[in-house]
From TrEMBL:
<dbReference type="GO" id="GO:0045252">
    <property type="term" value="C:oxoglutarate dehydrogenase complex"/>
</dbReference>
<feature type="compositionally biased region" description="Low complexity">
    <location>
        <begin position="238"/>
        <end position="261"/>
    </location>
</feature>
<dbReference type="GO" id="GO:0006099">
    <property type="term" value="P:tricarboxylic acid cycle"/>
</dbReference>
<protein>
    <recommendedName>
        <fullName>Dihydrolipoyllysine-residue succinyltransferase component of 2-oxoglutarate dehydrogenase complex</fullName>
        <ecNumber>2.3.1.61</ecNumber>
    </recommendedName>
</protein>
<keyword id="KW-0808">Transferase</keyword>
<dbReference type="Pfam" id="PF00198">
    <property type="entry name" value="2-oxoacid_dh"/>
</dbReference>
<dbReference type="InterPro" id="IPR050537">
    <property type="entry name" value="2-oxoacid_dehydrogenase"/>
</dbReference>
<feature type="domain" description="Lipoyl-binding">
    <location>
        <begin position="101"/>
        <end position="176"/>
    </location>
</feature>
<feature type="domain" description="Lipoyl-binding">
    <location>
        <begin position="2"/>
        <end position="77"/>
    </location>
</feature>
<dbReference type="InterPro" id="IPR011053">
    <property type="entry name" value="Single_hybrid_motif"/>
</dbReference>
<comment type="similarity">
    <text>Belongs to the 2-oxoacid dehydrogenase family.</text>
</comment>
<dbReference type="InterPro" id="IPR023213">
    <property type="entry name" value="CAT-like_dom_sf"/>
</dbReference>
<dbReference type="InterPro" id="IPR006255">
    <property type="entry name" value="SucB"/>
</dbReference>
<dbReference type="Pfam" id="PF02817">
    <property type="entry name" value="E3_binding"/>
</dbReference>
<dbReference type="GO" id="GO:0005829">
    <property type="term" value="C:cytosol"/>
</dbReference>
<dbReference type="GO" id="GO:0004149">
    <property type="term" value="F:dihydrolipoyllysine-residue succinyltransferase activity"/>
</dbReference>
<comment type="subunit">
    <text>Forms a 24-polypeptide structural core with octahedral symmetry. Part of the 2-oxoglutarate dehydrogenase (OGDH) complex composed of E1 (2-oxoglutarate dehydrogenase), E2 (dihydrolipoamide succinyltransferase) and E3 (dihydrolipoamide dehydrogenase); the complex contains multiple copies of the three enzymatic components (E1, E2 and E3).</text>
</comment>
Length: 495
């Protein structure tokens, strides 16, 4: 029984593509969803997976051919069918059958995430594993993903070592049920896959044409395709960089020479993908927003008294401790309803006002700062908020947060007080227009009723985008938060 492999939908207004690379040849056995070939349009590169498990019987569209949407690319046959170049009589062999090995593939990484870095292998070649046992951990821009063993057996090959970058759907390793590594094909070259950036990598046809038209050297282009192959957009970037004057202000400052005695005591460690993303987003916030911070202080006495009075019965009824965060979330939701600009965002020349509050709560993890989102926090009870924050915090520390749980926030709270911070200016989490910084509770002398008394005080800091939030709105927001925290009854009465 044969199955046709056709060109998938290429995107809005895109009607044709060029067959850039075939990863398989007629006669190769392939697993379901294993990548067969790569198509290139004028905008994106599209990978075509196998719709079924079987043998590639025929390639209809060769590399360099132009094909339309739904055009026939290849034909898949039964895995047991003889390929076009197979000999009819095969000598007896003790080699394990193809079905005896199982590929370990990169799992789905999340919406818009196409690649990850192999962070840690928990197993090595030769190790025996049971089904669902953790093999390795992948790291994306935002989350860590654990890869379990799809079957019990022995790891006979690891294709992506620690530190390697892998694409979604790529192959990580091979597990053999018999524990015997499959023998290499006799006619296979010693190095079937050239090293990344090597001269044997076949560049995309459209890229080669564009380089020829512009007399651009292959060495002047950095390939971002599979195995370092040059894509059309890589050539376009190189041409743009060559024509644009390099601004002196953005040139990196050269590192001063380090004495040999100091160099021996230094350690250079590559930034994790998460840390790179944090650095990039924080810098983007500073570059794109007109960021300003306003400060106030709040007497935490009323909140602390209320917690002490009800914490036991609260935990007994709801099964979660009553913390400070639920009070701050509630106070911010209350203030955002009065100053909606702080809960809005700029989109081009439009201001998008949110008629909901998706509250981001910054959480420090061993890998860096992440911001899980409590959705519709304005509709939740104190107990509901505490339970959700506790759940998200635990998942964040274990690296189990999904992409969806960290997207869509409309406002953020960051609690530097848990680390002892007395005062800071938090940086916006774009495209949000406001972030509240909490700090350490510290007793300070305050004048109350004409008397100097020691009160538990906390500094509050609101950083905001001055392009959309005026100074009056920012100060009003912070005052409303202060009033709600110093007299929690206002939250109940919507005052």
């Amino acid at each position: 029984m044969s199955t046709e492999v056709r060109v998938p939908t290429l995107g809005e207004s895109v009607t044709e593509a060029t067959v850039a690379t075939w990863f398989k040849k007629p006669g190769d056995n392939v697993a379901v969803d294993e990548m067969l070939c790569e198509l290139e349009t004028d905008k994106v590169t599209v990978e075509v997976p196998s719709p079924v498990a079987g043998k590639l019987a025929e390639i209809v569209a060769a590399e360099g051919d132009t094909v339309g949407v739904d055009a026939l690319l290849a034909v898949m046959g039964d895995a047991n069918a003889a390929g076009p170049e197979e000999v009819k009589e095969k000598p007896a062999t003790s080699e394990p059958k193809a079905t005896d090995t199982v590929d370990v593939m990169v799992p789905t990484l999340g919406e818009s995430v196409t690649e990850a870095t192999v962070s840690t292998w928990f197993k090595k070649v030769g190790d025996t594993v049971v089904q669902d046992e953790m093999l390795c951990e992948l790291e994306t821009d935002k989350v860590s993903v654990e890869v379990p063993a799809p079957t019990a057996g022995t790891i006979v090959e690891i294709l992506a070592e620690d530190g390697a970058t892998v694409n979604a759907g790529g192959k990580l390793a091979v597990i053999s049920g018999s524990g015997v590594a499959p023998a290499a094909k006799a006619d296979a070259p010693a190095a079937e896959a050239p090293a990344k950036g090597g001269k044997d990598v076949e560049d995309a046809p459209s890229a080669k044409k564009l380089m020829a038209e512009n007399a651009l050297s292959r060495d002047a282009v950095t390939g971002t395709g599979r195995d370092g192959r040059v894509m059309k957009e890589d050539v376009q970037k190189a041409l743009s960089a060559a024509s644009a004057p390099a601004p002196a202000a953005t040139a990196p400052t050269p590192r001063a020479p380090v004495p040999a005695s100091d160099a021996a005591r230094e350690e250079r460690v590559k930034m994790t993908r998460l840390r790179q993303t944090i650095a990039r987003r924080l810098k983007e916030a500073q570059n794109s927003a007109a960021m300003l911070t306003t400060y106030n202080e709040v007497d935490m006495g009323a909140i602390m008294d209320l917690r002490n009075e009800y914490k036991t019965v609260f935990e007994k009824k709801h099964g979660v401790k009553l913390g400070f965060m639920s009070f701050f979330v509630k106070a911010c939701c209350h203030a955002l309803s009065e100053v909606p600009d702080v809960n809005a965002e700029i989109d081009g020349t439009d201001v998008v006002y949110k008629n909901y509050v998706h509250m981001g709560v910054a959480v420090g993890t061993p890998s860096g700062l992440v911001v899980p989102v409590v959705r519709d926090a304005d509709q939740m009870s104190f107990a509901g908020i505490e339970k959700k924050i506790a759940e998200l915090g635990l998942r964040a520390r274990d690296g189990k947060l999904s992409m969806a749980e960290m997207q869509g926030g409309s406002f953020t709270i960051s609690n530097g007080g848990v680390y002892g911070s007395l005062m800071s200016s938090p940086i916006l989490n774009p495209p949000q227009s406001g972030i509240l910084g909490m700090h350490k509770i510290q007793e300070r002398p305050m004048v109350v009723g004409g008397q100097i008394v020691a009160r538990p005080m906390m500094y509050l800091a609101l950083s905001y985008d001055h392009r959309i939030v005026d100074g009056k709105g920012a100060v009003t927001f912070l005052v409303r938060v202060k009033e709600a925290l110093e007299d929690p009854r206002r939250l109940l009465m919507d005052l």
